[in-house]
Structures are given as C-alpha cells and as structure tokens.
User: Fold this.
Amino acid sequence: MAAFERGRKRGPRGRLGFAALSALAAFAQAASAQTLALPVPSGVLPLEVPADNPPTAAKVELGKRLYFDTRISTDGSVACVTCHDPRHGFADPRGKPTSAGVGGALGTRNAPTVLNAAFLALQFWDGRAATLEEQAVQPLVNPIEHGFANQAAVLAKLKTLGDYPPLFQAAFGSPEISSQRVGQAIASFERTLLSLDAPIDRFLAGDAKAISAPAQRGWEVYNAKARCNTCHGRIDVLPLFTDDLFHNIGVGVKQIDFPAVARRAAAAVEAGKSIDELALGNAEASELGRFLVTREQKDLGAFKTPQLRNVALTAPYMHDGSEATLRDVIEFYDRGGENNPFLDGGMRPLALTDQEKADLVALMEAFTSSDLARFAELEKLGPKLAPK
Assistant:
C-alpha cells in the first residue's frame, strides 16, 4: 500500500514531466522551423530564395545528410559529395576530365563547384535548371549519375531508409518524403555553402600586402592585355568574378558540325530523351551547350562562365575538363581558343609573355578562400552518413 501511495504521489510529477518534455519538443521543433540567416557578407546582394522554401536549421540538417548519403544511388557508390567534395573546393576530387557516376560510368562534363552556386541565376554548365531545388533532384534520375530510372524509384529507396522519416518530420512538419522536399532540403543546405573571403578581396579593399607581387602584376594583366575581366570582372555586390552568362570560347569543338549535331539532338529529344540525359550521356550533343536548352543558334557551343573563386582547388578545367592546369587554361586563352563558326567575337590571340602567364597563375591562387577550414567538419560526414 505504501508503495502504491508513493506511486500515486509520483503520478502528477510524472504527468508534469511528460508535459514538460512535450513542450520542450514543440519548442525545439518551432526553433528548428525558424528561418536561418544565411552567411552573406555585408554589401553583397542577398540570396534569392524561393518563397516556399525558407531555410531552416532542420531543412539544412536534412539536406546535409542527403548530400552525403551514397545509399541514394542505385549501386550505393554515389552521393552529391562524390563529385562536389569539400576537400576539393566542392568540386570533383578524382582528377579525371569528366565526372563518374554509378558503376564508374563517365559523363561528358566536369563537375563545377557547389560553393556560392546559390548566387548564380541558372544551374549546370548549360543553365538547364532555374533553381537549386530543380538542380538538386536532376542527378538522382540521370543514368550516369545516381542512376535511378525516375523520381518514384528515388522515393521508394528513401522510404526504405528508416533514419529519414524523423528528419523529414522535423524539416517539414510531417514524415512525408517527396521529390519536392528532397530538392528543397538539399538546396537549403547548399545555400549555406558560401565563401567570399580571399586574399584578392582584401587586396581590392586596399590591403596592398594581401597578395604577392606576381599576383599584383597578374591583376594588371587580367584587366588589360589578357582581358579576363570581359567575362570575369568583379562586381562589388556579386563578387564571384563571372558575368553569369554563356559563351562559345572554342572548348571541345574541333570536330563538331554544330548544325548536324543540333538536328540529331532535336530528334533525340522528340524521341523521348531528356536534355539532362543528352548533356551527360551523349558526347556530341553535350558540346551543343546552352543550345540544348534554348534551341537558339546564338547558343551553339556556349557554356556558362564559371566563377573564379577557389579556382586553384578545382582542376581540371572547362566544361569537359580538357585543361589540366591553370597554366593550360591561360595557354588556351592565349591562342584564342579553338576557331569555329560560332566562336564569341571577343576570343582572339593575346600574345602573352611567359612572365605574364605565370603572373596570372599567381593571381588565380589569390582567389582561394581563407575560410574553407569552417567546412572541415563536413568532410567527416561521408562514411558515417553514407554506409555502402
């Protein structure tokens, strides 16, 4: 009886404890649903974030786990991080000209960095995705990347992974797993991958000692004889060193008959091939670049101007990885690219000296961010969150 009485006396405290825990859980969920302030430096344009996907801590955490999880591929070998690794400036660390997916299959394009991609107007080398949300889900159903036949197959796989429903619950208020939510979560994580602090920034802010003497000479060449600033000029409110436009600079066009390839690509699309599949799975169609998306002649062989931040970390270069080093890239521009009927008018030989080329390489190294150590913790997530 005494024991029973003691139990009864504990009852109210037990119920109170449960209520307190429930309130604490509700508070935690509400806190995780609060919109995050993204790390955009003062003076830089704020990110354009879709109204239906405000960033929250819970969404970022879910997106981070999805980004590192190789289980979300048909053979358990590929995650977003496979081609966009923090240790390689969030680009492909494997050193091959083009990136590989499931089964080791090689695509036709080199994976660009994810750092600062949130500032770009369009995603992918050809701009076929209008938002990070749209970009995030396309590789999942590309036969060369994650390998799933369709989004339904992706969702079926995710639903077998018991660690995800609680994460979707925390991020979206229900455990429902959908393609839209997958894209929103990964995009939310990628919007936190911002890095706009490099020696070149301090130099341009007035610190003459921030970069080396060769790099300073390189900056002069960059803005004059080499005319790099035509497409890679600095805009204070969006300092990625890219015009974010598309240009045919003569990469990968030596044997391409653009009109004939364009006709074959159009026929393939009409037969049911997706632009995404053609871009990565058909070598000649891939070289059409932006034209695959717009079907406008002016876009034949045109690819997005990449940002230059952390460029020294992301070799090889160009959309097809055809230039192994920064010096190779400069040599390419020095000879005026590869001539073709749709070459941009600004491409012409530069007659740079060896010293000027070396100075430009030194300058490119000054674009490496000083704050990349803050991403070091992410490097540890792969094996833990992505068991094979």
Remarks:
- Confidence is low (pLDDT under 50) at residues 1-28, 383-388.
- The first strand starts at residue 246 and ends at 247.
- The chain has 17 helices and two strands.
- The beta strands are 246-247, 303-304.
